[in-house]
């Protein structure tokens, strides 16, 4: 048991080491555009955001950092994304029978799931998909920047590669000052980025299942069914909500053509789930749109990928539990499979811890800054869920507030892996049980 628990301590240590190295590199004068040494907190914030593949920034990536500094940031979110995906998958395997929460969700009938002996194939899958998708996306974006925007080849290649790696790793960093707002009507830019984000937000357990079983729904594991159907539902719901709420907003969709409205609403329905690119001004959203974003960001994407949030499986488990109580059923089930009590407790634990952390952080930020509460809540959820979208107030936070966001980004990325693994491993059983007595609930 001690050996199995070592990864729980190892993962945060490795990510802290990467953050420290990135901070030192960004702290060097060569990393800034004007050659001056940046503030240590700025370097730490940027390094943490990159390694945690979040995308929140306190300085403009395109103008503040030199080519060397931007290269450091690219390297950090590449290793952060690849390391996170690998660690989440492999340590999910080490937890027992599956990946993260899927370990308890899948039933004994579904023996097609990955076992510890498949660790090598997982690594190969991660590496192959990373190289193929990033190269393909970089080629598409580079060609588009050259042919349609007259970028010189070197500049087009840099912007194309930067956005391809950032999109695949769900990092949300952009080499343009306005993210991708300059390409609001360009489907050739926005659609490939969307597809890359959706793919990696599914998680590698799903990719592995799709590789083995294709689109055969009956042969998919329960985890894959929940993740794919949940992703489709959230994308469609987010698209319809954003399209309806922002249709007439002159600062977002209002002045666009119908086609551009549909494209940008679809693009933004993807981004709050994990990525952080924005083709619309998030700070100009209506309050009801921000509420929809809170929901999408908090849930996040699939387990054992680059997505943040509490994960789709966690939300699905709790939703099934609620429905079973409302319908007065003995078991919580979905797609013809019931959940064990262990996974229900795990899901509840993840949600309560996440909600408590966001509530506490937002309350503290409201105490130390006069910024609007809805903006502070947005930043807190975005940081914890490693989304990277911002209403524009991140840079206005005082040093203490930036430290809180740094902590949220680190805990939201690394903590979800280690907590899920720790819960799956379980603890030592008590040699006794207390007498049962039930309090009044509700």
UniProtKB/TrEMBL annotation:
Record-annotated membrane-spanning stretches: 12-28, 40-59, 71-95, 122-147, 187-207, 228-248, 294-327, 347-368, 403-425
Membrane disposition: Multi-pass membrane protein
Annotated localization: Cell membrane
Keyword Transmembrane helix: yes
Gene Ontology BP annotations: metal ion transport
Keyword Transmembrane helix included in the entry's annotation: yes
Coarse class of the protein's main subcellular location: membrane
Record keywords, A-Z: Cell membrane, Ion transport, Membrane, Transmembrane, Transmembrane helix, Transport
Coiled coil: none
Pfam families in the cross-refs: TrkH
GO cellular component: plasma membrane
Full protein name: TrkH family potassium uptake protein
């Amino acid at each position: 048991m001690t050996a199995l628990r070592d990864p729980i301590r190892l993962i945060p240590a490795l990510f802290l080491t990467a953050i420290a190295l990135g901070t030192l590199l960004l702290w060097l004068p060569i990393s800034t555009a004007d050659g001056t040494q940046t503030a240590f907190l700025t370097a730490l914030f940027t390094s943490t955001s990159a390694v945690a593949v979040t995308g929140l920034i306190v300085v403009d990536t395109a103008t503040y950092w030199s080519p060397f500094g931007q290269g450091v940031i690219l390297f950090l979110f590449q290793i952060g994304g690849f390391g996170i995906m690998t660690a989440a998958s492999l340590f999910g395997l080490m937890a027992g029978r599956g990946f993260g929460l899927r370990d308890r969700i899948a039933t004994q009938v579904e023996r097609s799931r990955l076992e510890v002996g498949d660790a090598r194939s997982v690594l190969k899958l991660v590496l192959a998909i990373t190289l193929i998708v990033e190269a393909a996306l970089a080629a598409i974006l580079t060609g588009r920047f050259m042919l349609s925007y007259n970028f010189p080849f070197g500049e087009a290649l840099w912007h194309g590669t930067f956005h391809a790696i950032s999109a695949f790793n769900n990092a949300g960093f952009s080499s343009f000052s306005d993210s991708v707002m300059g390409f609001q009507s360009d489907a050739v830019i926005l659609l490939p980025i969307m597809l890359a984000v959706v793919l990696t937000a599914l998680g590698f357990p799903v990719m592995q299942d799709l590789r083995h079983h294709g689109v055969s729904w009956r042969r998919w594991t329960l985890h894959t069914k929940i993740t794919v159907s949940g992703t489709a539902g959230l994308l469609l719901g987010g698209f319809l909500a954003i399209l309806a709420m922002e249709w007439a907003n002159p600062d977002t969709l209002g002045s666009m053509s119908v086609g551009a409205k549909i494209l940008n609403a679809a693009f933004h329905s993807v981004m709050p789930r994990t990525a952080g690119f924005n083709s619309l001004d998030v700070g100009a959203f209506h309050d009801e749109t921000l509420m929809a974003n809170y929901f999408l960001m908090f849930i996040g994407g699939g387990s054992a990928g680059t997505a943040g949030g509490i994960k789709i499986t966690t939300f699905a488990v709790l939703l099934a539990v609620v429905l079973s109580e409302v319908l007065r059923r003995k078991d919580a089930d979905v797609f013809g499979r019931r959940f064990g009590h262990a996974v229900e407790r795990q899901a509840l634990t993840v949600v309560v811890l996440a909600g408590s952390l966001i509530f506490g952080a937002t309350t503290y930020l409201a105490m130390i800054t006069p910024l609007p509460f809805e903006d502070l809540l947005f930043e807190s959820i975005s940081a914890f869920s490693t989304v990277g979208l911002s209403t524009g107030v991140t840079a206005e936070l005082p040093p203490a507030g930036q430290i809180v966001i740094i902590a949220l980004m680190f805990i939201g990325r690394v903590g979800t892996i280690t907590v899920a693994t720790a819960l799956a491993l379980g603890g030592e059983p008590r040699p006794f049980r207390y007498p049962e007595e039930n309090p009044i609930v509700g």
